[in-house]
Design goal:
Radius of gyration: 20 Å
Structural class: mainly beta
Number of strands: 24
Shape: globular
Length: 392
């Protein structure tokens, strides 16, 4: 899903046609944390809970193919929020049976958020009142944190209560604040002294593994969790190419086996989408190389292959910086098979006219640890415990 804005509306319309499973986003990482102008609608907290810089880890859960975490507000209400590195405005209260309730630290602001999410599994229109409140994530507390509470919400994935937005704060520039940039959860945790640096580490476990492991991964705020890594972290700068530089974007090329299918290009990383999206030309090259066909009876028109074709499936390599991040045959299929024996591939097509070469969704995060550093505008990558897993 992508939040539409004046500058990107045509890009987003293209995505809504060409990408049925992307995540909320709209502006990019054009400014760093130290250079931003913060909004002043939230008063200084009356109740301060920080215990000094401690960093922290929050365990991730999964519903279907959505990754989420549970947060709490000052009323002790809890909400399951979709993880989204493509947007920067956090909101809660999507479910009628689990509405936001004002607590001891709630403060209603005069602002209203009105935005559309194009692309994505479910196109969404959100109009929301805004509150300042405490937002508790595990042992960490953002105090205060501005959040949206829906007045109008067209639809949202069942069982989820909203979005924990993990993108850079400049994505919030177009939310009607006369140039003010609303701080994100990560930035507030940092500026309020809860974490030592504005760093987020994302670790996802493949879905079938998560069922038996009891956890779908974790978010590390302020530092990275080396206990889940099997290699060191390699950093690259955020892409300078438009429009990838408007997101958590990187420059990369893609190779299937020994066959290049996408030359040097730019794209971005998106926890809110499951699949790996590439240009139509790259998609066609991948389809022919694998022998896959588009399943016209499938709602999302996914590529399917036979068992024999799967047995011959080769590695799909994402080349970023001087490193190759390889996706094994197991990592290229989801689900492993349908009840009638079809095997679905995770690669899909996006419209090349939008200027993006690729979007790396949760399939990529299931195999590689990703670090987002707001202050240095860098993204880091490392292999983790399930990089070579045969589960998905």
């Amino acid at each position: 899903m992508f939040t539409s804005t004046t500058l990107l509306v045509f890009i987003l319309l293209a995505l809504s046609i060409g990408n049925s499973e992307s995540s909320p986003a709209h502006r990019g990482i054009a400014k760093t944390l130290l250079g931003r102008v913060s909004d002043s609608t939230c008063p200084k907290p009356l109740y301060h809970h920080q215990l000094g810089k401690q960093d922290g880890t929050v365990f991730v859960q999964q519903k279907g193919h959505y990754y989420f975490v549970t947060v709490a507000t000052s009323s002790s209400s809890t909400f399951d929020l979709l993880l989204d590195t493509g947007s920067a405005y956090t909101w809660v209260g999507a479910r009628q049976e689990n509405q936001y309730v004002e607590g001891y630290a709630s403060y209603r602001t005069p602002q209203i958020i009105d935005t559309d999410y194009a692309g994505g599994v479910l196109p969404i229109h959100l109009r929301a009142n805004t509150y300042c409140d405490i937002l508790v994530l595990g042992d960490l507390t953002a105090n205060p944190q501005e959040i949206g509470i829906p007045i109008e919400l067209s639809r949202f994935p069942a069982g989820l209560d909203g979005v924990l937005a993990l993108g850079p704060s400049v994505l919030n520039t177009d939310l009607g604040r006369d140039g003010y940039i609303i701080p994100t959860v990560v930035e507030n945790l940092y500026s309020q002294g809860a974490i030592s640096s504005p760093v987020l580490g994302v670790y996802f476990v493949p879905q079938n593994v998560a069922i038996t492991a009891g956890s779908a991964g974790q978010l590390s705020f302020g530092s990275i969790d080396t206990s889940v890594l099997t290699t060191g972290v390699k950093y690259v700068p955020v892409s300078k190419t438009f429009p990838a530089n408007e997101f958590w974007g990187v420059d990369a090329s893609i190779v299937y086996g020994k066959k290049p299918i996408l030359g040097p290009s730019s794209g971005f990383l998106d926890t809110g989408t499951r699949r790996i999206s590439v240009t139509s030309d790259a998609f066609t090259a991948y389809r022919f190389a694998t022998g896959a066909v588009v399943d016209i009876l499938d709602r999302n028109k996914r590529l399917t292959i036979t068992q024999d074709q799967y047995n011959n499936l080769q590695t799909l390599s994402i080349l970023i910086g001087d490193q190759s991040y390889d996706l094994s045959p197991n990592a290229q299929i989801y689900p492993r098979s349908s009840p009638d024996g079809r095997i679905f591939l995770v690669v899909k097509s996006i419209n090349a006219d939008i200027g993006l070469g690729f979007i790396l969704g949760s399939t990529f995060f299931q195999r590689y640890y990703v670090v987002f550093n707001s202050s240095s505008s860098e993204i880091g990558f490392a292999s983790h415990l399930y990089t070579q897993s045969t589960g998905n």
